[in-house]
Amino acid sequence: MIEFKSVSKRYKNGVNALHDVSFSVKDGEFVYIMGPTGSGKSTMIKLLDGEEVPTSGSVMVSGVNVGRLRKSKVYLYRRKIGVVFQDYRLLPEKTAFENVAYALEVLDMPTDKIRKRVREVLKLVELADKSNAKPRELSGGQQQRVAIARAIAKKPMILIADEPTGNLDPEKTDEMIRLFEKINKEEKTTILVVTHNDVMVEYHPKRTIRLEDGHIVSDRLHENISFYHDRKLPGEEKTEPKKEENSDGIFPENENPENMSEAMKQDSLIDTITVPEELLKEEEHPEHKEEEQ
Fold it and tell me: Could you tell me the CA-to-CA distances from 152 to 23, 41, 59, 116, 293 in Å, in that order?
């Protein structure tokens, strides 16, 4: 699905944002991208959605070399990428329904199909009763759910959420991550959550790629899922994790297949993604041509 191959990015102002970064994400995975400000997280998003191109190396998404797409084809590629921005970017004078529908109208989708899909995604994010509300009539968390609904309305291959819990309290953070888990499961969407929220990752452990100064310093999967599920959210009374013996005695508790994370079980999950043939035609990006001259 996603593969970064020895990717480095140096901006014209001399900033080296990424250094020889390599990793891959399978179809249907849920992955956290973590790191402090300036670690390279934002650059990684820009490389994935075609806003920037690598200085060296390649970014492959479902067989497409994103950095070598023609400018005229980038918009077609972006139809398969959903991004939830920190500021939501909702149209203030449109209702929740209209904000989501707009993302499909630009695709020239028939009106009846637009209305059906908008109802589906608003129900998925639990805002079916707010479809006629404008952004100013919604809470911050509800506005974010509209932004998520809009991002997934076009059924993207990948959903990227940029610091989605930055302005949320612990309870709302828990709800937001459970929503992403629901989308991951029901829509079969690959999820990348870009964050620096260690507490969130602790209570909802997944595969986590950590960046520091443009380098990957760790890429690991939290395995002791049962331990975290027994813990309480901040402010609640903590309880000790309950220890239970495995009935057959074959697996230690944290290695029992029943306790493994979904990402560990998805090694064999490969969905066929159809990408327009014109996206597979590569052309040297203008930046590469300038460098060669």
Answer: 24, 21, 22, 14, 41
Cα–Cα distance measured from residue 259 to residue 274, given in angstroms and rounded to the nearest whole number: 33
Compute the C-alpha angle 58/62/68, nearest 5°: 40
User: Which amino acid, one-letter code, is at 38?
Assistant: G
Q: 7: number of CA atoms within 13 Å, CB side?
A: 29
User: Mean pLDDT throughout 272-288?
Assistant: 52
CATH fold of 24-80+156-226+245-293 reads Rossmann fold (3.40.50)
Query: Does position 90 have pLDDT exceeding 50, yes or no?
Result: yes
What is each CA distance from 207 to 82, 130, 174, 179, 210, in whole angstroms? 20, 34, 17, 17, 10
Give the type of residue at 140: G
The larger pLDDT score, comparing residue 2 to residue 202, is at: 2
Distant-in-sequence, close-in-space partners of 245: CB < 8 Å, separation ≥ 6: 253
Tokens, residue 68? 């070598």
- Secondary structure letter of residue 129 according to DSSP: G
Structural Rg of the chain based on CA atoms: 20
Determine the Cα–Cα distance for residues 80 and 61; give it in Å rounded to an integer. 10
What tokens appear for 197 in the block? 């929220």
Domain spans in the chain, listed from the N-terminal domain onward: 24-80+156-226+245-293
Name the token pair of 238: 């903590």
- Prediction pTM value: 0.74
In the three-class reduction of DSSP (H, G, I as helix; E, B as strand; rest coil), residue 212 is classed as strand
